[in-house]
Amino acid sequence: MPQLLKLFLTFFKIGMFTLGGGYAMVPLIQREIVEKRQWIEEKEFYELLAMAQSSPGPVAVNASVFVGYKVGGVTGSIVATLGTTIPSFVIILIIAAWLVDYRSNPYVEAFFKGIRPAVVAMIAAPLYALSRAMNIGTAGLCLAAAVALLVAFAGISPAVLIAVVACASLLTGILRQRRQKQV
Question: Are 118 and 19 in contact (CB under 8 A)?
Fold first, then answer.
């Protein structure tokens, strides 16, 4: 099977069988790209994931662009991106056409309420794995949880929190350098 077709089918499968958005796709992307296909190494995957998170747009699409480029250049990026996005696009079209009549159905409502914990777990698992791989530790996880709670319940803008954490990180780095120079 040609490499570009493998790339498309791999990301199509990832896009087709993942509920919960980009972060829920991360474990599947890692399994398919790093472990199964061995297109990139684990360390490179975490670097790619950091770039995908800091680039504008959905993390799964950004990751597919980076992996696609690594595997097949610009054409690989396009193929991987199409593989990731086509399933969601088709599913949303079907749901929009069908679900309008059933959105107040108690079984449909129960289904969506029932999958929420699974989606949360699917998002939490890669974040935990990423924190371990990047040696963030318990303090980093607590900081991430605190930020999530502030955004969710206190109504603080994520942009403000990012700016505060960036300033705190910069200050911490400066203080560390000063301490190292003194020793």
Answer: yes
